[in-house]
Amino acid sequence: MRIILFDIDGTLINSDGAGRRSIARAFNDCYGLESDLCDIEFHGRADNGILRDVFEKKLGKSPSENEIQRILDALVRHLPEELQRSENYRLLDGVAEILEELSHRNDVILGLETGNTEPAAELKLSHGGIWRYFRCGGYGSDSDIRSEIVRHGIRKARNLLEPGQSVKAVWVVGDTPADIEAAKSVGVHVLATATGMHSLDILCSCGPDVALPDLSNVPQVLSILLSDS
């Protein structure tokens, strides 16, 4: 079996800032904070870590776990509306075709490795009609640390194996240096795609197994992910 774990934002979809806007609204609801959070780094990070940054930089405090959960709950309440407002929301080139092809194979387990919490991930991908492809995932609700998110995704995928099945290869597909570094630290393959905020040159400098400008060449991407090498 092959385990293939995809990042979400910048890899599978462009949500047109729906997540950032939802977090900003959540902090406004809960703490009266009026900020678009444009000075907070989001890319390649887990939601919990992003929220801690906002608490520390904007509110001058370290949050309790209950405060983090309060913001996460408010984020999920706002996210459906913000997704509807995102006129430029789209699946990135090649994504629908790649997932459809891989979903028909009996030697592949499709999963996620994302800084989003599982409820947020489901909302973002359901909006584009692709949540149904993923059988498991490592989420920002599992850990703040990207490598641990990848480990959680792999563990959950392994739990889906039938007796006698073994894992032949594990791939992570992502658009940030954090995805590459996490995959390398766990010892699995990584395909980097320059469809997010980072250039192909920057991604290549992080040492992925493969780096592509995008995922639009579907036969090429499938050949990489299903290669025996």
CATH topology of the largest domain: Rossmann fold
Please give the domain count.
2
Arithmetic mean pLDDT: 95
How widely separated are the two ends? 14 Å
Proportion of strand residues:
5-15%
Main sheet record: 6 strands, parallel
H/E order of the elements? EEHHHEHEHEHEHEHEH
Number of strands: 8
CATH class of the largest domain: Alpha Beta
Q: What would you give as the CATH superfamily of the largest domain?
A: HAD superfamily/HAD-like
Strand order of the largest sheet: 5-4-1-6-7-8
Shape: globular
Uncertain segments are none
CATH architecture of the largest domain, please?
A: 3-Layer(aba) Sandwich
Radius of gyration: 17 Å
List the total number of helices. Answer: 9
Helix share of residues?
40-55%
Structural class: alpha/beta
Descriptive terms for the model:
two-stranded antiparallel sheet; 9 helices; DNA polymerase, domain 1; 229 residues; 2 domains
Explain the overall architecture.
- It is a single chain.
- The chain is globular and about 55 Å long.
- It has helices spanning 18-31, 47-59, 65-85, 95-103, 118-127, 146-158, 177-186, 200-205, 218-225; strands spanning 2-6, 13-14, 90-91, 108-113, 136-138, 169-174, 189-193, 210-212.
- By secondary structure, it is α/β, with parallel strands linked by helices.
- It starts with a strand and ends with a helix.
- Helix 6 crosses helix 7.
- It folds into two domains: 2-15 and 89-225, Rossmann fold; 18-85, Orthogonal Bundle (DNA polymerase, domain 1), CATH 1.10.150.
- Helix 8 links the parallel strand 7 and strand 8.
- It has nine helices and eight strands.
- The chain has a six-stranded parallel β-sheet with strand order 5-4-1-6-7-8, sandwiched between helices.
- 45% of the residues lie in helices and 14% in strands.
